[in-house]
Write a structure and sequence with these properties.
It contains six helices and four strands, in the order H-E-H-E-H-E-H-H-H-E. It has 168 residues and is α+β, with helices and mostly antiparallel strands. A four-stranded mixed β-sheet has the order 1-2-4-3. Strand 1, helix 2 and strand 2 form a beta-alpha-beta unit.
């Protein structure tokens, strides 16, 4: 830890499953691209709830359709994020897709896909175009249309969220 601190690193290292803080200590917890690397994300989210003050905010992101990377264990779908936050007692404010999964697949595979990374963008454009055409046909026939975020979430490279611990 001293070496990390000397170079601007963390002041404290702690296992996310057993956070080294007193109950209701923080107003905000931010976890960027962390959940997929944990052995038990549900336990970690319960720990976040424990250390947040009532009314505190938990913001984060985690992989969904990104390729396996750096010891990733659990990739969270939109419903997985919702269930994990709900089980820990959070009130969900927002869940939205991060970058698209097509781009993620080509970008994160590294050197072999570097020359063809543009293919991920093309596939995403095709997907969105096909969904747009489908929705236009549904609208013309009077059928219900899904919210665009749901279509985007189905193929998201990552999921992002903001949740609040109930005030009391």
């Amino acid at each position: 830890p001293e070496l990390l601190q000397a170079h601007g690193g963390p002041d404290l290292l702690s296992d996310a499953h057993f956070l080294a803080f007193r109950d209701e200590r923080f107003d905000v917890v931010y976890a960027s691209a962390v959940m997929e690397h944990l052995a038990c994300p549900a336990l970690a989210v319960q720990e976040v709830s424990r250390i947040l003050k009532p009314g505190g905010v938990f913001m984060g992101s985690g992989s969904f359709i990104e390729p396996w990377h750096d010891d990733s264990f659990f990739h969270l779908s939109p419903l997985g994020v919702m269930e994990t936050l709900t089980q820990a007692g959070f009130e969900i404010q927002y869940i939205w897709p991060g970058w698209d999964g097509f781009t993620a697949l080509f970008a994160m595979l590294g050197t072999p896909t570097r020359p063809v990374r543009f293919v991920g963008g093309l596939l995403n454009t095709y997907y969105r175009g096909a969904r747009g055409a489908r929705d236009m046909l549904k609208k013309m026939t009077g059928r219900a249309i899904e919210q665009p975020i749901f279509d985007d979430a189905k193929v998201a490279g990552a999921m992002d969220w903001i949740a609040r611990k109930p005030a009391g």
